[in-house]
Amino acid sequence: xxxxxxxxxxxxxxxxxxxxxxxxxxxxxxxxxxxxxxxxxxxxxxxxxxxxxxxxxxxxxxxxxxxxxxxxxxxxxxxxxxxxxxxxxxxxxxxxxxxxxxxxxxxxxxxxxxxxxxxxxxxxxxxxxxxxxxxxxxxxxxxxxxxxxxxxxxxxxxxxxxxxxxxxxxxxxxxxxxxxxxxxxxxxxxxxxxxxxxxxxxxxxxxxxxxxxxxxxxxxxxxxxxxxxxxxxxxxxxxxxxxxxxxxxxxxxxxxxxxxxxxxxxxxxxxxxxxxxxxxxxxxxxxxxxxxxxxxxxxxxxxxxxxxxxxxxxxxxxxxxxxxxxxxxxxxxxxxxxxxxxxxxxxxxxxxxxxxxxxxxxxxxxxxxxxxxxxxxxxxxxxxxxxxxxxxxxxxxxxxxxxxxxxxxxxxxxxxxxxxxxxxxxxxxxxxxxxxxxxxxxxxxxxxxxxxxxxxxxxxxxxxxxxxxxxxxxxxxxxxxxxxxxxxxxxxxxxxxxxxxxxxxxxxxxxxxxxxxxxxxxxxxxxxxxxxxxxxxxxxxxxxxxxxxxxxxxxxxxxxxxxxxxxxxxxxxxxxxxxxxxxxxxxxxxxxxxxxxxxxxxxxxxxxxxxxxxxx
Amino acid sequence: xxxxxxxxxxxxxxxxxxxxxxxxxxxxxxxxxxxxxxxxxxxxxxxxxxxxxxxxxxxxxxxxxxxxxxxxxxxxxxxxxxxxxxxxxxxxxxxxxxxxxxxxxxxxxxxxxxxxxxxxxxxxxxxxxxxxxxxxxxxxxxxxxxxxxxxxxxxxxxxxxxxxxxxxxxxxxxxxxxxxxxxxxxxxxxxxxxxxxxxxxxxxxxxxxxxxxxxxxxxx
Lengths: 616, 220
Known about the structure:
The complex is a heterodimer. By secondary structure, chain A is an alpha/beta fold.
């Protein structure tokens, strides 16, 4: 049960990253082979078969489940390799992502873990090898929760490797794993019928219990986590427990990471913050501030933009009454929850933003701005809430005109509040804040982890491998991944060009030389025929008059032929020039290769890598 | 002309509005009713559970009509049951995870129902394997076929509980429900011996009452 082939963190990380690139099967395979050559300096001696969940069209349980993953099977009977790597992406689209991250934080649903197992079992059934198959789960982010939960429940994998993963959740497992639930009920004397009892237990004790319960399986779980990863920061939230061997890496030494900040902020505040942040980020990503407002409040900002006074309001109210009604109803439904969310944040603003300031993420001025704008938003929302409440009162009176007047008046009021909210949101959407968010989000990426892993002269830019050579006092960094890609593509293109030139030269031969010879042969044949059988050409005399009394006959034909050789059809020079351009380009590519090789004189593997990459 | 039309429309609205109010009174959902009018049982006392119950009229003694949040299945809901709010998961019409605690005096139970809209026919063995993983047992299942669905059911016991594990496959469209129903008897040993057999029947009846709402039978 050993995984021999993909044995280093770098290789695993780069494999997981490939899953995000949306490659087709062929490109996926080729990329794996290239990464393998870069990382190990040798060619992979195994056959690769790729299984993508999206292609399991006949199995709705997998294809429609929202699960997205790729399984890579490496097999070589001779080398004794039989390994299956299942790379889970967790979720297919943004909508799924939103649901899944919320469900996961609440510890609700194990559907994705179940789908992970279904997919893996289905792939296993399709692999018909006789030797023992090692199954390894690879994942990043949310998918760690899926892979690990599947591993705990269904023994889906022999080993699980993850990076910046969302941790397992004991609430989730309480619903999924009845054996775990039974032990937990016993240990904490939870009444079986009490459907909410588990939420009243001390999270620290539950966490310790769960960690202990699954300790055996944790031996096969390995994680790499960035201390700056925002997901790691919120992993201290109730429900989560971390299993397995974890290697923590400080991927952004400029900042202390968010974990400590989050640990200082009460659970329910973090939850409210999360909820808002997720909803806002998702909606605004798709359609800016207006879309975010629509998504969160159910208010269509376009409806407001056409209003510039009481009269145009009344007009719009008559022509688009159902839209306005829907909006008022949406606001009525959505605002109370939002207000309570925001109030949690404003009433803890000093703790939250103060700690962000201490940690150097924001300046004092930025903190002030954040607090001011969020408080403004809170006040405007309260204003809307109040307006709607009074409006509902008028509606209940049942007077049509009062209702109408009430609505138009209150809608005008609401518009003023909404405009102010929009303004505040625009302020918060400034480049400097987006930049901070971006910097924080970067620490969740596989790239940043790879970039902080460097051993010897090897390091990474993104997921490309970089080698550093020392020339005297100077250091020269070479992006090996890019160099190999260029070398491979370059030689590939040149080969193709050469092939085309050969085809061209053959075509010349065929089309011109052969055609000339063919025509000449036909002419000579005809001559021979005429000379041999002159009588057959009797009819040629016809143009000289053919009467019954005409008694002339052809007795012999002599042809005095002059056949000129083919001229001006010599393309050798042109062909030569074409071949020269290929040679030149090849020389350039080889020079480039030699230059890199000479930088790393001691390392013979470099030259080998170039040779190997040509073969892919 | 126009005024006439508007007037007629107006009258119609008033008339229809009036009708609606009358109808509403008769078919009011328990969740919309005044708590004082509701039966004084655990199922109705819990506000969250009330949302799933379709009527205050019993389907059979001690049970009320329950409609799942996806609207994909219905069942008889025990008067002593309550749905866990914090553990409830609903994803559109795709997935629903529900945990029900039942406090029937000396029998305490937990029912776990997981609905998956994408579960197609033909992989039932795999699903049963996964249920076995969840209860940590190697169970063999009996198969019961009805017109619209197939039920796989197995009795099992653990140190603390006895109960049923099962899977209900929709035969007319995609959809499956994982069912795990566990009970414990908290009475004296002698008493438990007599009431246990009875409670096993209760469990079976409860499971059998779970029915898919297929497109043809879907109510408006």
